[in-house]
Design brief:
heterodimer; A: 369 residues; alpha/beta; globular; B: Rossmann fold; eight-stranded mixed sheet; six-stranded mixed sheet; 30% strand
Chain lengths: 369, 303
């Protein structure tokens, strides 16, 4: 059976025929995949939210309230970041969630966020970091190894957290790590970004680059808790920008030019296979395809790992697939010796402060106790 | 069907199998566990609550699982899983039941944003609710436990759920969490009250839960309109005393004690201010429970 949350998002009308046991599962899958807010927004857009049974509708309203609050918070956060960087005349491109919200693009509807990602020119990154620190952001990674890890090998500086608001910003200077096997022409992305009205020197990527970045990000990611949500982002972008025939004409040549044809291949393959995203046949035919064994292997992995990380979506091979993609993401990120050193270091000398991945483990007798 | 209609053996089997599907009125929770002692606590505390058919819709699926490997035998532990994912640091096995209550509070406070949720006790009399927001240690639960044994109806001990459209408080009527000296104080104050055996050395000290009055559970589907906001404070040796408190300050303090005021944005501000238009606001200090009961009776009679 197809995953309920995918069915529900793809055919909102179907939701009205669900039994309460199916609603139960739909809410749980949606919650785990961080897609409940999107489902609520989708149902509301089709004027169907009022027809959802009360018990399930409560969860949808709740998720929508959270998504709306986050969109509000992101707009405010972007203004604060702009204020910090404008003083130094540093341009920035907003990436992913923040870009969708600021440009009011389709994936923004009901989406939830963890942090804001921005891209600044490589030569301005230290200046940007200093400006943000002057405006109240602070680094969390104090360990000298991790500082070096980020600064020498990654495409970003260690995440900065705002002291008062607790919000996190990732400042990138490239869209993939410097050590990555795929070499991306980041400066090419700076040639014609789309300006954001009202925020001087702040941009979003032009449509094709936005799709390519989103694809590069998802198909280099090792932990796919939000994999399905990110795939739905791609689906929404492709459906939205795809209305313009020129988008499809320029998509593959541009991917080739910036070095992201392979992630584009995966993006088109899995949005089509899992979400039924419409893509013109000639576009599909023109993307270079991996060799058949690789294709089989990637299908095996992604068709499992892009499902919600919920017990109801586990089938034979799911955990192997997730582990394989985790290993692959590290493999893609850096050369073997560096990787071996990094993983050994991570295993033997874990960083001393709290869990940087935002592990939810907490004390049960907390405030709500 | 009520939980008390199940035998203990049947309850243990349900906990191990498809779960106990318990209706907490606005929420249904599915509880699974391999800790048999949990069945005893559920019988003590939730006997009057309704069960719903298993396999339908549950708002929260939770499991309390005994630790594995060595942790099963040496200093055994219990884990709280929310829909299959461990959500808290494990606790010693004897804290399984308090962990269930704390975990449920977390489930509600972090998912039920269809309500404005305030960290407060709520009791009601003659259709009028008193909302008592307070930080831990202010004597909120003790006062709440005493009031519900003197004719006030329990709506909630921890979480005030405010309906965003109607402004009503939605009852939860779950067991009241008593800590340390409050346990003996309430035992003396209400000798017929049913309490769980105390659990020692939790992070909150010694803890016992108090069974909600049957009448409050029977009326769990009746919301109530807030009429008073009271900030309680236990102060040894003082006389019970209500002091009027400004509505502006009250608004700020409630926002501070809310779990999701920020999520509601402008709507949250509007719910709060609309509610305060119809409420009298007080700070309340007390040193003796009997004294406090009289003061509350006078408050109820005053309007």
């Amino acid at each position: 059976m197809a995953t309920l949350i995918i069915e529900g998002l793809s055919h909102p009308k179907l939701c009205l025929t669900l039994t309460s046991a199916q609603w139960d599962l739909l809410v749980r899958q949606g919650r785990r995949a961080n897609l409940l807010g999107k489902l609520a927004a989708e149902l509301a857009a089709h004027d169907l939210l009022g027809e959802v049974p009360n018990a399930a509708r409560a969860h949808l309203s709740s998720a929508l309230a959270v998504a709306n609050q986050q969109a509000r918070a992101i707009r405010w956060e972007v203004r604060c970041i702009h204020e910090a960087l404008a003083a130094e005349n540093i341009p920035a491109i907003l990436l992913k969630g923040a870009a969708y919200v600021m440009a009011d693009l389709a994936p923004a509807q009901g989406r939830v966020f963890s942090d804001v990602d921005i891209l600044v020119p490589r030569e301005a990154i230290e200046c940007a970091e200093a400006a943000l620190i002057r405006h109240g952001w602070r680094g969390d990674h104090h360990d000298a190894y991790y500082q070096r890890y980020y600064r020498r090998w990654m495409h970003e500086i260690p995440p900065l957290m705002h002291q008062k608001r607790g919000t996190v910003i990732d400042v990138h200077h490239a869209i993939l790590p410097l050590t990555a096997r795929i070499k991306v022409d980041t400066p090419a992305l700076w040639r014609a970004p789309t300006p954001l009205p009202g925020l001087e020197n702040f941009f979003i990527l032009q449509p094709i680059d936005m799709v390519l970045h989103s694809a590069a990000h998802l198909f280099h990611e090792g932990e796919l808790h939000n994999g399905l949500r990110d795939l739905f982002d791609l689906d929404a972008l492709l459906r939205h920008f795809g209305k313009d025939p020129a988008f499809w004409e320029r998509l593959v040549p541009r991917a080739r030019q910036v070095g992201l044809e392979r992630p584009l291949y995966y993006a088109l393959r899995y949005t089509r296979l899992l979400l039924g995203t419409p893509v013109p046949e000639q576009v599909v035919a023109s993307v270079a395809t991996p060799s058949p064994p690789i294709r089989e292997l990637m299908d095996f992995c992604y068709l499992r790992a892009l499902q919600p990380d919920h017990a109801s979506c586990v089938r034979a091979g799911t955990s192997t697939a997730r582990f394989a993609l985790y290993v692959r993401s590290h493999w893609l990120r850096m050369p073997f010796l560096l990787l071996a050193y990094h993983l050994a270091r991570k295993a033997l000398l874990p960083e001393r402060h709290g869990d940087a991945e935002g592990n939810p483990a907490r004390d049960a007798a907390g405030r709500a106790g | 069907m009520k939980l008390s209609d199940l035998s203990r053996a049947r309850l243990v089997t349900c906990l191990r199998g498809e779960g106990v599907w318990l209706s907490l009125s606005p929420f249904v929770v599915c509880i699974q566990s391999d800790v048999p002692a949990l069945a005893d606590r559920l019988i003590e505390m939730y006997a009057d609550f309704a069960l719903v058919p298993s396999g339908a819709f549950a708002d929260f699926h939770i499991e309390l699982r005994r630790g594995r490997g060595l942790r099963r035998w040496i200093r055994p532990q219990v884990d709280f899983h929310f829909d299959g994912v461990p959500t808290f640091h494990p606790l010693p096995l004897d804290q399984a039941y308090p962990m269930l209550e704390w975990g449920l509070n977390w489930c509600i406070a972090s998912h039920a944003h269809q309500y404005l949720i305030v960290h407060a006790a709520v009791v009601e009399r003659s259709g009028k609710a008193v909302i008592m927001p307070a930080p831990p240690g202010a004597g909120k639960s003790t006062l709440c436990a005493a009031l519900v044994h003197r004719g006030w109806r329990l709506l909630s001990d921890e979480l005030a759920l405010l309906d965003v459209d109607s402004g009503h408080v939605i009852p939860l009527a779950r067991p009241i969490n008593l800590k340390n000296r409050s346990i003996e104080i309430i035992r003396r104050f209400a000798p017929d009250a049913v309490l769980t055996p105390p659990v020692h050395d939790t992070r909150k000290g010694r803890v016992a839960l108090l069974r909600p009055p049957a009448d409050s559970v029977r009326r769990i589907d009746e919301p109530a309109m807030p009429a008073w906001i009271v900030f309680p404070k236990y102060q040894a040796g003082t006389q019970a005393c209500f002091r009027p408190f400004s509505k502006g300050q009250t608004c700020l303090r409630i926002a501070q004690e809310s779990f999701n005021y920020d999520i509601h944005g402008r709507a949250g501000f509007e719910i709060l201010t609309r509610m305060l238009d119809h409420c009298d606001c007080y700070e309340f200090s007390y040193g003796e429970l009997e004294d406090a009961m009289q003061a509350f009776a006078a408050l109820a009679a005053s309007s």
